Amino acid sequence: MRKSRKVCLFVVEGMADKTSLALPLQNLFRHFFDPAHVEFDIMNGDITADYRTKPDTIIGQLGSHIKKHLDKKKLKFDDLIQIILVVDTDGAFIPDDHVIVGARAYRKYPFYLDDSIVTANSEEQEKIQVRNHRKVSNLKRIISLPKVRKIPFCVYYFSCNMDHVFHNDANLDDNHKVSMAENIEDKFRGNYKGFIDYLSNSFPKGVKCSYDSSWSFIEQGTNSLKRNSNFVLFLDLDGLSQLKQNVEK
Question: Which of 29, 132, 21 is nearest to 85 (CA)?
Answer without folding.
Answer: 21
